[in-house]
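Researcher: Here's the sequence for the chain we discussed earlier.
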Amino acid sequence: MSSQDENSSVWTLPNWLSLLRIVFIPAIVYLISTQRPRFLFASCILFIIAGITDGLDGLIARRMSMKSKLGLYLDPLADKLLVSSVLIALTYYHLVPLWVTILLVCREFVINGLRSFYAIEGITLYPSLAGKMKTTFQIIGVAFVLFGSGVTWLLFGRLSFDDIGRFIIYVALFLSLFSAYRYVHAIFRTEARS
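Model: Thanks. This is the structure I predict for it:
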């Protein structure tokens, strides 16, 4: 990261978008807790907007040279808080299997713990392509589950939107475990060389 990036204001548009994602969490969880179709549909819309801000903040930071150290940590933190909170809420209402949520959330704690530990040592662990794809699939999968719970339409006979969403979440789980393996492997390989 260049010195220009480090000296720029922390209150950039990308950082505000990350904060907005965090602010959306209580509203989305509350809407899910009502278990009423129209509120579940509204939670889906809010979750999609929050997901769009995830893509926008990174794009704006790169294109408009608004990268900051705060953004480097705030963006993934906002993603993990959003997705983990909503997955836990969906699991509570039996819309996502408990074991899937446990694996996904535990992976986030482990990888974030490693990132924080190495950040103290002055080493930055950047998100991998698999990690970014995992987040994208999680957001798409959760949006499908919320949408499927908020509407009664069916696709392809017995296959519903929430079934498709759960399948996408399983793909996200595979990518999550694969990217965690890559992080840990890279860390131990670096440790072995030093």
